[in-house]
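Hi F.,

I've been meaning to write this up properly since the lab meeting, where we talked about keeping a consistent format for the predictions we share between groups. The idea is simple: the sequence comes first, exactly as it goes in, then the structure tokens exactly as they come out, then a line or two of notes. No screenshots and no reformatting. I'm using this chain as the first example so we have something concrete to point to.
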Amino acid sequence: MHWFYLALGIVFEVLGTVCMKMADGFTKLIPSIFVFVFYGISLFALIFVLKKMDVSIAYAIWASLGIALISVIGIIWFKEPVSFVKILSLLFIILGVIGLELYD
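Output, unedited:
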């Protein structure tokens, strides 16, 4: 069950970050409110994960997969520039997460 909460936490962390971008410096009310709602849900889920998983592993997975997902969303949705180095770096993040889980 802790993997479900971790996935939920990652999804809501990414949603919070997307809303942060859409809030335009907290000048747009609805996305600004959702920043706090989504980050709150994300941290709430992470609290349950930490009951069963080491903080060093849980937080590393939560943060790194959030970074990777928001990077992909930035490229696709927000039309951010993409390069070979950016793609390679994202692959290293994913490999790092896999390594943390396999060799824990």
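Notes:
The mean pLDDT is 94.
The chain is about 80% helix and 0% strand.

If this format works for you, I'll send the rest the same way.

G.
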